[in-house]
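Section 5: illustrative case.
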């Protein structure tokens, strides 16, 4: 009895409170996004907000189950859960039905299940389990390769399901690896590669290549007496050249046609306000029309008259912006930032390496979702279809994030014990 009391006292109630607040705010905004005069009850199961009420009840039940189970259990079963989710992801390729071009959903009668949402916490557990093994050093090539495989296998399978947005989320694990000692040069290389990809779509490749070679020549002249630095410069120039000339292949053969159009619209190469650019344009109109204080709850005209597609899922933030304005948007973003800072704080106070790494995985995934989801609603990121955590409609998303967060809360409750 004394041990159980201690566990309850160690639970981070601030994280629990943030979770409940965000889920409640998300539910209210889903209600506002699809509200109509014929269905006023927020518990109407024929409407998205009624179904979301069931999903919320289910998420609270899941959270309680996670808190009841012994904290050591999660490190023990990490590889088992990861392996099971990989099998489910592969099965999805065979049994999934096409949903807007994606093969990421499995039907169970009236219930639809999206395995990719659960693969995020499974991958976080497996990566934390591997990196917490004694004598594992992220500087070793073998460690980097195995870590890359743990992250890359589910990402590739999800990409095969034509769910590019969910696959890209796995790139956020780079922050976990960086925290564990991965060289900042690799992180910088990733950012430079993204910049080169974008520039290669905007500038003629011969001109861009000339600029890169010119910069390389300047650095070569400055460090010509240091053979090691010369090798680094030559390698960098070769990699940059490969990226520049590899853009066309990736752009034309990997990306789907609608994804290419969305990127062209985002970069200003096309103006398609009635096609690929319609969602973002309507979203920006909705958010801008909210002004400073917003139009008020259930008063959003863009929302009420369905001008914004997917307004209860991927574009839920435009409902926040229209009905609650700048003030409401600031509150929501601030709440997410507070959640992220708290998660990092909780991760840093862990005595277990597994728990610390897992905590940074949670923060990385939520940060990526927040950055891209809000970015795409205001036209700063391509529309890749990922939900806003705890706010967007959907059982798989809500339950996946609930499991992700509450495993950390449970591990934190056991922080005085060393998990192996």
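Designed sequence:
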């Amino acid at each position: 009895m004394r041990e159980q009391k201690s566990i309850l006292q160690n639970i981070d109630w601030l994280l629990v409170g943030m979770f409940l607040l965000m889920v409640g705010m998300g539910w209210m905004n889903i209600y506002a996004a699809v509200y109509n005069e014929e269905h006023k009850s927020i518990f109407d199961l024929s409407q998205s907000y009624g179904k979301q009420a069931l999903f919320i009840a289910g998420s609270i039940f899941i959270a309680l189950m996670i808190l009841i189970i012994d904290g050591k259990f999660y490190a023990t079963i990490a590889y088992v859960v990861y392996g099971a989710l990989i099998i489910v992801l592969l099965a999805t390729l065979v049994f999934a039905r096409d949903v807007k071009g994606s093969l990421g959903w499995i039907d169970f009668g009236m219930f639809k299940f999206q395995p990719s949402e659960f693969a995020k916490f499974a991958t976080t557990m497996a990566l934390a389990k591997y990196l917490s093994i004694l004598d594992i050093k992220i500087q070793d090539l073998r460690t980097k390769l195995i870590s890359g495989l743990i992250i890359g296998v589910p990402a590739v399978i999800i990409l095969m399901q034509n769910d590019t947005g969910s696959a890209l989320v796995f790139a956020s694990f780079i922050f976990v690896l960086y925290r564990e000692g991965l060289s900042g040069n690799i992180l910088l290389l990733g950012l430079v590669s993204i910049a080169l990809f974008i520039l290669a779509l905007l500038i003629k490749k011969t001109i861009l290549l000339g600029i890169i070679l010119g910069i390389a020549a300047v650095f070569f002249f400055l460090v010509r007496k240091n053979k090691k630095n010369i090798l680094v410069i030559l390698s960098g120039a070769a990699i940059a050249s490969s990226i520049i000339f590899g853009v066309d292949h990736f752009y034309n053969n990997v990306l789907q046609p609608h994804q290419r159009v969305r990127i062209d619209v985002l970069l200003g190469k096309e103006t398609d306000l009635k096609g690929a650019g319609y969602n973002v344009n309507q979203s920006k109109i909705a958010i801008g029309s909210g002004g400073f204080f917003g139009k008020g709850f259930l008063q959003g005209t863009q929302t009420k008259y369905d001008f914004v597609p997917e307004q209860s899922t991927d574009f839920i933030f435009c409902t926040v912006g229209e009905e609650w304005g700048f003030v409401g948007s600031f509150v929501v973003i601030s709440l997410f930032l507070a959640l992220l800072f708290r998660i990092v704080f909780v991760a840093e106070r862990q005595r277990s390496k597994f728990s610390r790494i897992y905590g940074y995985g949670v923060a990385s995934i939520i940060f990526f979702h927040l950055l891209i989801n809000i970015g795409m609603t205001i036209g700063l990121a391509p529309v890749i279809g990922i939900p806003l955590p705890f706010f967007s409609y959907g059982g798989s998303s809500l339950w996946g994030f609930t499991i992700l967060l509450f495993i950390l809360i449970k591990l934190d409750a056991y922080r005085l014990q060393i998990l192996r």
